[in-house]
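Hi there,

I know you've been waiting on this one. I reran it after we fixed the sequence typo, so this is the corrected version. Both the input and the resulting structure follow.
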Amino acid sequence: MIVIASDGNETIRQLADEVIYVPRADPFVQALLAVVPLPLLAYRIAQLRGLNVDQPRDLAKTVTVE
């Protein structure tokens, strides 16, 4: 399990396999900070799986060029 947590939260490390820490901030900004690592994580996982990250599957079904 991969968890995104704020800096200083060491209790979460016991529950998760991997922890991605983001800086502490105001609660309204904290949600935005927590979202930033997600596309980077998805990109890296796709690379490790050997998928073509420049041409996602089924993109032609949602985007048509005339």
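Quick highlight: The chain has a mean pLDDT of 84.

Best,
R. S.
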